[in-house]
Design a protein that fits this description.
4 domains, 4-stranded parallel sheet, Dna Ligase, domain 1, 7-stranded antiparallel sheet, globular, alpha+beta, 22 strands
């Protein structure tokens, strides 16, 4: 055993020596792995030795495990303008920072956020900085993020900032400096958490041995800080998102689930009596705290951006009346302007009587005559950028231009623009980002990175996350890094001096009231859960038709007259449902089109709608459910061409049905029996009842054959039950009874009606006046009609009436529970279910 350990250690040392010899830091650029003398830093030696003991094959396997976990968990992001999401690009090697160095960073971040809070309080308050000349008025009011309606409004809770972030990097002397401030709605903290989860699972032993500081205490303290700002014991905290098409929507849903917050969009909220309320299926419920990820200007279309559909009309009025706490306060984004960075050293001395612990990159705002001429005269040695994030020379916003890279004509144009309107420009010291190791084809290579560090307001003061959001560019000359093509994100490991205690977000038993149901379900979430159920059922019904058609085509008896009629019936229903072109008379091609075609009713198109609905409520779905939905979508979409044979069509449809069964099983066995589960199941029940009525009308007629009856029983998955109950074969009345009226058959119309009645009975009421709400009135009437019907007297007209009643019920459910628009009702009394 000892010899084996010695051999493993020797192998690891050899591997480290190989990696170090092959590593080539960029000239004159500080590097995390190598020090200035070209030697590996001790903490990296320990990390790479431990990594090397695993062996190349094991390392590759663990890297692959991390990548697979990202795909299966749906960790993703969206580049601005993209239609689809991209898998999260995780760098397999973390950024390592020693404890002593981290303490200096944390102290600098705490000082900086205190400075930011003091500046905001003055800018939106007394304005002493402007009056004294410490801060030019135009540097503030020239920013589009300075909100005049908020001037003089003290934010509810008394604070402006609750979560602050700074992008930092190493300067030429190796010291950390601030590249940019994030005070508006800092993003990335959720991705930092996801990075940690993935990498710690891939290398659990290495994670423990390196004594990595945990992230959970930071998020717990942040949550406690928001709760402390509310006026109620058990406040309702909402994460306000721009919606599922935002670049970082996954992160927002991930954080909402992790912290137990309600994920809401602007349309979920409305104003009543100076307070913000959430539209839920139980009526309007007060929101105590809004943690916003919507830019300030879009938060109130009444007083800010009138074109915004992301905000809450009247929100600023609520702030004036102290009706809701908004984190971060509206207007706090004014401090993100590069123009303000040029004044930070002076403001720190003025407000805190201290020097900046973490210096800025040197910045000259061109709104001042002397600085303006310096920037123009020394343009070649500077990076020119918009003072407020505005575009320069037609380049994208926030993109700095290095003077020496411009043509003489561009320099002349830029100089003229600066002289004309200098307040819109700043010159900054050219930043050459320091580098960190990235694993590339079995070796380490240096790549530029930016580290975003977070500070949260807590009941005990400011707390800095022991880690952060690291972005790494594949371009060695990168001067700014944002998530996009060729950019990766790395976990950040802060190495403690001693073993770190295992911690979680679990609070003590004394501080939590037992609760068996989640908070009230927002109407938007109810809407999407309902439609997720409907789309799943539509997909299943289409897959069953496709499988039946392909199965009949494979059957050796397909040349009989009756079978030919049955095939025609199945094909006609597929085209009627929009699963294939109406003029397509080739059943083989029609079955393939129904599975994978571009028409709106194909299984692939329906599954695309299903996945979209699921993405809107990702925070309410378990990882297993999301993974299965993705598996089903990719299983239908992965093939670029249509199936080439009936057998292939049959197999792919059958595989899809197995995945849908798994999704239903997860929902049935794992989903809490609250309103969310009921709305999801109601969507499936409504759609299944409607489809079953259509199946029955289509395959039970005076001209129907035994083949038609057999297909119908297959479509509702009742073939075995029927055969065991009736030994004499299929007959019209017995089939009709089992398909439509049998309350013991989980696929019958009657069973769906019973389940819908039970769900509606258990959903909350808006009023306790004893009157039936419209959905309950409809289901009582339908239940009576179905339960008293007799198979022998049940014709297709009566079945059509059942179908129309179910469609009307779906509309009534939407009107009652999806309380959107200005007339959302307030509940008189609720049952507490949500």
């Amino acid at each position: 055993m000892r010899a084996s350990k010695q051999t493993k250690a020797a192998t690891a040392e050899d591997r480290l020596e190989q990696l170090a010899q092959a590593y080539r830091p960029l000239p004159f650029i500080p590097d995390e792995f190598m020090d200035a003398s070209g030697k590996p830093r001790p903490h990296w030696v320990k990390f790479l030795n431990s990594l090397g003991e695993l062996g190349d094959e094991d390392i590759s396997r663990r890297f692959a495990t991390a990548d697979r976990h990202i795909r299966e968990s749906g960790v993703s992001y969206r580049v601005y303008g993209d239609v689809s999401e991209r898998a999260w690009p995780l760098s397999h090697v973390p950024l390592l920072i020693e404890a002593n160095e981290w303490r200096e960073i944390a102290a600098g971040i705490c000082q900086r956020v205190q400075l930011m809070e003091a500046i905001l309080a003055d800018v939106y308050g007394e304005g002493r900085l402007v009056r004294s000349g410490a801060l030019p008025a135009t540097a503030v009011t020239g920013s589009p993020d300075f909100l005049h309606p908020l001037h003089g409004v003290r934010p509810p809770g008394g604070h402006y900032l609750y979560l602050y972030a700074a992008d930092i990097g190493r300067g030429p002397d190796g010291r950390w400096w601030v590249i940019g401030d994030r005070t508006q709605a800092p993003s990335g903290a959720g991705y930092a958490l996801a990075n940690r989860l993935v990498l710690s699972r891939a290398f659990p032993t290495l994670y423990r041995e390196m004594n990595i500081e945990r992230l959970a205490p930071f998020f717990s303290a942040f949550r406690d800080g928001l709760m402390a700002m509310a006026k109620r014991y058990d406040p309702r905290i909402c994460l306000l998102t721009p919606g599922p098409f935002n670049e970082t929507y996954f992160e927002q849903a991930y954080l909402a689930r992790y912290l137990g917050f309600l994920l809401v969009e602007g349309g979920d909220l409305t104003m009543r009596d100076g307070e913000v309320h959430v539209r839920t299926i139980a009526g309007l419920k007060r929101a105590d705290v809004l943690w916003r990820r919507v830019d300030s200007d879009f938060c109130d279309p009444l007083e800010l951006n009138g074109q915004s559909k992301l905000g809450v009309p009247g929100l600023i009025d609520s702030l004036r009346e102290g009706g809701v706490v908004v984190a971060n306060a509206l207007g706090s984004g004014v401090l993100e302007a590069p123009a303000l960075m040029s004044f930070m050293p002076r403001l720190c001395r003025t407000l805190l009587n201290e020097e900046l612990a973490l210096p800025n990159i040197a910045t000259w705002w061109c709104g001042q005559p002397h600085e303006r001429e310096d920037v123009i005269n020394y343009m070649d040695g500077m990076a020119i950028t918009g003072a407020y994030g505005n575009a320069v020379l037609g380049r994208p916003p926030h993109q700095p231009l290095v003077g020496m890279s411009l043509t003489q004509e561009e320099k002349d144009t830029l100089a003229a623009d600066i002289r004309l309107r200098g307040i819109d420009y700043v010159g900054q010291e050219v930043v050459n980002l320091s580098t960190t190791p990235v694993w590339q084809e079995g070796r380490l290579v240096p790549r530029p990175f930016v580290l975003r560090v977070y500070a949260a307001r807590t009941p005990d003061g400011w707390k800095v996350m022991p880690g952060g959001f690291c972005r790494i560019s594949d371009r060695t000359d990168a001067r700014a890094v944002s998530m996009g093509e060729g950019v990766q994100s790395a976990d950040v490991w802060v190495l403690a001096d001693k073993p770190v205690e295992m911690v979680t977000l679990l609070p003590s038993d004394e501080t939590v009231r037992i609760r068996r149901l989640m908070g009230n379900l927002p109407s938007r979430a109810a809407d999407n859960l309902f439609w997720l159920g409907r789309y799943l059922e539509r997909t299943e019904a289409t897959l069953r038709l496709v499988r039946s058609l392909a199965g009949k085509l494979i059957d050796t008896d397909t040349h009989t007259i009756n079978t030919g009629q049955t095939i025609a019936r199945i094909g006609a229903l597929l085209t009627a449902w929009g699963a294939g072109p109406a003029d397509l008379d080739d059943p083989i091609l029609l079955s393939a089109q129904g599975l994978h075609g571009p028409d709106y009713g194909s299984a692939l198109s329906l599954m695309r709608d299903c996945r979209r609905a699921a993405s809107f409520i990702r925070e309410r779905l378990s990882p297993d459910t999301w993974r299965l939905i993705n598996d089903l979508f990719h299983g239908l979409a992965v093939e670029s061409a249509l199936p080439t044979s009936e057998a292939e069509t049959f197999e792919r449809a059958d595989a899809g049905l197995r995945t849908i069964a798994a999704i239903a099983g997860v929902a049935q066995e794992n989903m809490n029996r609250g309103a969310g589960w009921r709305l999801l199941d109601m969507g499936r029940r409504v759609e299944r009842g409607i489809n079953t009525c259509r199946f029955a009308r289509h395959f039970i007629s005076a001209e129907a054959t035994a083949d038609d009856f057999s297909v119908l029983l297959d479509l509702i998955d009742s073939q075995i039950t029927y055969r065991s109950r009736y030994l004499m074969g299929v007959a019209q009345n017995t089939v009709r009874d089992m398909v439509v009226l049998d309350p013991y058959n989980p696929r019958s119309v009657s069973f769906q009606v019973e389940q819908l009645a039970d769900h509606l009975e258990n959903l909350p009421l808006l009023s306790d006046d004893g009157m039936l709400e419209e959905p309950r009135r409809r289901i009582v009437k339908l239940s009576a009609e179905v339960s008293t019907a007799i198979a022998a007297k049940l014709d297709n007209d009566a079945i059509f009436e059942f179908e129309q009643a179910l469609l009307g019920l779906a509309d009534a459910i939407a009107v009652r529970y999806f309380l959107q628009g200005p007339h959302a009702a307030r509940a008189d009394k609720t049952s507490g279910l949500a």
